[in-house]
Design brief:
The structure is a single chain. The protein has 143 residues and is α/β, with parallel strands linked by helices. It has helices spanning 7-10, 20-31, 42-56, 63-73, 87-97, 101-112, 122-128; strands spanning 2-5, 36-40, 79-81, 116-119, 135-137.
Amino acid sequence: MTYVIDASVALKWFLTEEQNQGADALFEAFLTGRIELLAPEVLLLEVANALWKQVALLKLLRSEEAVSIFRDFITLPLNLRPSNPLASRALDLAIRLQHPVYDMLYCALAIENDCEFVTADNVLVSKLSGRLPFVRFLTTLEI
């Protein structure tokens, strides 16, 4: 089974947040080879930006912790796909669904690979799940 994940899921592997149970199960299934996880390369930037936010704006992490988390994150054997080939489809989706291109890159990758896109972003799921049935909220996933 293959899933596309976004930064909201990946960060749960490293930060103490709500709904970590689903993220932990997904991570374990990935590490044991039961599932494959895909993401567009922009995932790296989104994770780095979210860690910066944890340090600079929310004051929830020290800078050394954020750097260490990112260093660990980039060692994961995630299957990162180039964002450029997805950009045209992502733009089409963004215009049609009135939602930012960044999130639509994940949707475009899920469409391209005929798989589900798993996120921990409630707002995103609420907005898209009725129109894009492959968008799944992390806690609804049964691994």
